[in-house]
Amino acid sequence: MTHLIQLHEFDGGIHPPENKRQSNSRPIRKASLPAELVLPLHQHIGAPANPVVAVGDSVLKGQVIAEPEGFVSAPLHAPTSGKISAIEARQVPHASGLSETCIVIEPDGEETWAEHQGLCDALGLEHCDDIPKEKLIERIRDCGIAGMGGAGFPTAVKLHTGQHNIDTLILNGAECEPYITADDMLMREHASEVIRGAQILLQILGAERCLIGVEDNKPEAIAALEDALVQHNEEHHIDVVTIPTKYPSGGEKQLIQILTGKEVPSGGIPASLGIVCQNVGTAAAIADAVDLGRPLISRITTVTGDAVRDKGNWEVLLGTPVSHLLSLSGYRPAKRERVVMGGPMMGFALPTTGLPVVKTTNCLLAPTDKELPTNNPAMACIRCGLCADACPADLLPQQLYWFSKAQEFDKAEQHNLFDCIECGACSYVCPSEIPLVQYYRFSKGAIREERAAAEKAEQARIRYEARIERQEREKAEKEAKRKARAEAAAKAQSAKKEAPIAKAAPATESTATEPTTDADLEKLQKQLSAAQAAVAKTKEKLEAARENPEMADKIPAFESALTKTQDKIKTLAKEIAAAKKAAKAAPAATGPDKGDPNSPERLQKKWETAAARLDTARKRLEDAEAEGADTVDALRTGVEKQESRVAEAKAAYEAALKSGTDNKPTEATATKPDAEQLQKKLLAQKDRVEKARERLEMARAEKLDSVDALEKALNKQLEKLAAFEAQTSTTGEV
């Protein structure tokens, strides 16, 4: 230590047996390759990575096999060369015992590296101090480095300090939990990499000083770090600080308080105090990533416990099965076999030894039942207060226990439940042997689930309100358009009634062709209305599909149908405009005389044709009302107009009969009007069949719900057409 650093105390803490000499008496050994490597995609806090390889692919050592998903995430690399044998759900090392997606690699034994190089060489710089801060953070993220002290927070995310100015970097080398010696041996044998990592972190953060906190039970590690400082000429910039041995002095907030006297506020982060804390193992991994281009594919793991014959520390590839590492250490399972990942205070028992080593696996503890007895049944709380005295976070463990047990999560949260670091000190001193930490973990999980459910409900509420607002807006727009169409129709009807009735005159070519032009325009107008209704309905279905993830596969079909119908509307609009223009520009020419248009025969035909059209309009209205279609209002208006036309035609026919202009036909001429009338009806029916076919084809193209109803309507029209054809044939034979 080159500067005088004043140490401070934190409240609480305990002194359990260290049990570290069993595993720190021999150098770090390199574990052999297992038969397969199982790599969970979720080895860090945040979102799991996304696979970028497929089963059967060959991979090289250090190759990216999964990319990060989002900001708080980290990539995953192949620990060795080999072949991807599976990408499937497997049980992962977690207290929940659940399964997650894993990439399984079958090693080829070649250990062939992917191409990699130091960042300084990659950028073509002469000195590493010239590397921009952003490039350093990018390299750390690309190499998949996460906190190796146990939390597993992505290091690159932690180095984005935002608006906070950082003046102090702290490297955590306390390693306070019993049995674990991985960081101790790392500092002894790789002290140079730790100091180099500290230099890189200082360069990124722009901090003024770096403090490396090491407990006084690790004199060899302290000496190795001091020597490394001299080698790197950092003895005046980086301080190795010896702190008293006390559990949990290795907790981030506790170590900050010991070294600086500052307390991280409840719910706050160290960056708010101008401090960033990293593990010494993380610092060494950063040095390898920046200087050598090596991603995080291995770590040092302690294997200890009385059930292990050959205790020590191993440099092991990520994904190595726990059973393989135990076998290398001479594991002798006892009757009540138990393997703990982590230490005895904060670790958790593994359900099986087939689980893999991950980035946060710092220790595998295989104790005998005598060495680490299983918990006895919990007894009643005697309110002794020992848990409160031992708590290093100044909480009220007893009160939190009652709230958790009664599932009063809101009260537990008000008592700063999430400030609990789950160190297990309260459970260690509890005379009633109550598993307090388990209650706190249960409450935290329940609160997180409630928050997630509330957030999901809020998002659903926002989507629902937006949908209702959109539907009301579209409804108002449709109502405004309907009223505008009704007003325009009323004005046209009024103008038609006020127009003087022209006297009978010989039919010219223009008047002879006018009914055909009007029929064409009417047909185009109906097709346009049907297409507009189809567009509205398709838009509704498209919006519903976009809001419902289960209908996502139907979105392309709806978009294609919408585009086709919109194109058809444009085409119909052009045809209507052209037809109107042609009707106005048609020259007036004489044509064949078709007789007196005001004769009873002609007026009777007009009446019957109008009545037939009225029946068709009523049928369409009934079908639309049954289907709940958007065209009901328009069809109802059309029925009303057609009823008035039928009444007018009937009145004109009756007036012609009363005027006596119609002489009594002879028997020879009486049959001719019947044949002409049937022929007229036959042509009208063919027109209805054609229109019904067009509506059905349009509905099928747009995949509307009215396809079945339109098919039935077409069949009925075909039956009527067959009847007319049979009747016409019989009349012709006569």
Walk me through this protein's architecture.
It contains 20 helices and 17 strands. It is of the alpha/beta class and 734 residues long. Among the domains are: 29-349, Rossmann fold; 597-663; 665-734. A 6-stranded mixed β-sheet has the order 1-14-13-17-15-16, sandwiched between helices. Strands 2-8-7-4 form a 4-stranded antiparallel β-sheet, with no helix packed on it. It has a 4-stranded parallel β-sheet with strand order 11-10-9-12, sandwiched between helices. α5 (191-205) crosses α8 and α15 (509-547) packs parallel to α19 (667-702). The protein is elongated and about 130 Å long.
CATH architecture classification name of the domain at 29-349: 3-Layer(aba) Sandwich
Structural class based on helices, strands and sheet pairing: alpha/beta
Intertermini distance: 126 Å
Strand order of the largest sheet: 1-14-13-17-15-16
Main beta-sheet strand count, sense and barrel state: 6 strands, mixed
Helix content: 40-55%
Shape label: elongated
Count of β-strands: 17
Mean pLDDT: 85
Radius of gyration over C-alpha positions, nearest whole angstrom: 43 Å
* CATH domain class name of the domain at 29-349: Alpha Beta
* CATH homologous superfamily grouping of the domain at 29-349: NADH-ubiquinone oxidoreductase 51kDa subunit
Number of helices: 20
